[in-house]
Amino acid sequence: MGRKSLKETRRLEIIKVFYQVAKKEGYENTSIAKIAKVMDINPSLIIHYFETKEGLTYELIDHILDRYLLIYTIKHKGEATLDDLRKTIDMLFSKKWNLLFDDGLFYTFYALAFREKKIKLKYKLILDALRNGLSLMIEQCNARCVTDVENPQGVADFIFVLVDGAYFYLSMESDKKAYTERLAYYKQKAYDTLGLPPVKVLSAPVL
């Protein structure tokens, strides 16, 4: 009971290899034949599960959504604590969060969203789910009187706007020290928006 079927296991394995190949070769240069070669299987098996490269792409985006939403796994379900909220903010502004999905693929799929309605809807689902999860966590902290955020949904939206903008900008930054300092600065801005005391007093890094 609760164990994954062989079919589910195989599908997930194909999705993960697709991600690795696309990350290395680029999405446009990735084909079902290349994925099959890496896995040492017949391409017809991949076609059996996903039919087309587009079908595989849709399921990869769904898989990424599941990975992103793991950020809201908390010890006391339905009763987020201030510690849960702090850990979530720390995670959002961390190298680990940024590495959940390769930047090159993220922005490739993002560009496809302007041409393919299905991908656009999937991206909207990801972004809405992340915002709603953070908003709910803030509401639960408000209920416990550990935060006093007047508009949880608006604040959650602002924080993710900050996250999205921060990582796009930082993807252009090659200086590790500057990257770390700016990421810490953006995180502090998120803490300020939540009305939480600073972890460390930070000034804006010099551009």
Kindly report the oligomeric state of this protein: single chain
Query: The CATH topology of the domain at 75-194 is what?
Result: Tetracycline Repressor, domain 2
Say how many strands there are.
Answer: 0
Largest sheet: none
Name the overall outline: elongated
The level of helicity is: 55-70%
Unreliable spans are none
Description:
With 207 residues, this protein is mostly helical. The protein has a domain at 75-194: Tetracycline Repressor, domain 2, CATH 1.10.357. Helix content is 69%, strand content 0%. The chain has ten helices and no strands. Helix 2 (32-39) crosses helix 3, helix 5 (82-92) runs antiparallel to helix 8 (117-143) and helix 9 runs antiparallel to helix 10. The longest helix has 27 residues, at 117-143. It is elongated and about 55 Å long. The model has no long low-confidence stretch (mean pLDDT 87).
Write a concise synopsis of the structure shown:
With 207 residues, the chain is mainly alpha-helical. The protein has helices spanning 6-25, 32-39, 43-50, 53-69, 82-92, 95-98, 103-112, 117-143, 152-170, 176-194. The protein is built from 10 helices and no strands.
